[in-house]
Amino acid sequence: MNVQIRSKEIKLTQHLNDHIATAIENFKRYHLDITTVNVMITKEKKGVGVEFDMHIAHAQPVVISDIDEDLDTAIDMAIERANKALRRLHDKMKDHHATSLREIEVIEEEA
After folding, report:
1. Which InterPro entries match (predicted)?
2. Angstrom distance (rounded) from CA 1 to CA 8
3. pLDDT tens across 5-49, in order?
4. Of 2, 17, 92, 96, which is the most buried if we count CB atoms within 10 A?
5. Phi/psi at 106 (5° precision)
6. Burial class of residue 42 in the structure, from the number of CB atoms within 10 Å of its CB (0-12 exposed, 13-18 middle, 19+ buried)
7. How far is CA 53 from CA 47, 94, 106, 108, in A?
8. Burial readout 52-87 (b: 16 or more C-beta within 10 A, e: otherwise)
9. What is the C-alpha separation between 71 and 5, in angstroms, rounded?
10. CB of 64 within 8 A of CB of 86?
């Protein structure tokens, strides 16, 4: 997984950089084939903007944007939304490969 954390007009501390990197590592728990994660932190009119751009093999890219006055809050809200989007995508993929009714009927007949 390629990871890029970039900031524009904002100085990122090592603590924030580590916090974002840890959150990206936690994305692996969804067992999706995430190929690239780009994080862009920018200064906006109404505060700070955080954007997660995640590219997943065999799926559409997931883009999460969040703006808040506080940098820590904006990062945490974007991480929460990214986790929610990845969880939904994981559940969608998992349900797509669920057992069919024919397989259930065959198991019932054998019993």
Report:
1. RHF-like (IPR036567), RHF/RaiA (IPR003489)
2. 23
3. 999 999 999 999 999 999 999 999 988 889 999 999 999 998 999
4. 17
5. -65, -40
6. middle
7. 20, 22, 44, 45
8. bebbbeeeeebebebbbeebeebbbbbbebbbebbe
9. 14
10. no
The CA distance from 47 to 7, in Å, is 14
Domain spans in the chain, listed from the N-terminal domain onward:
2-110
Would you state the pLDDT for residue 78?
95
Return the SS3 of 4: strand
Q: Rounded to whole angstroms, how far apart are CA atoms 74 and 84? A: 15
CATH number, domain 2-110: 3.30.160.100
Task: Give the 3-state secondary structure of residue 50.
Answer: strand
List Cα–Cα distances, 82 to 77, 103, 104, 109, in angstroms. Answer: 9, 35, 35, 43
Tell me the three state secondary structure of residue 58. Answer: coil
Specify the pTM. 0.80
Mean pLDDT rounded to a whole number for the chain: 88
21 forms beta bridges with none
* DSSP 8-state code for residue 44: E
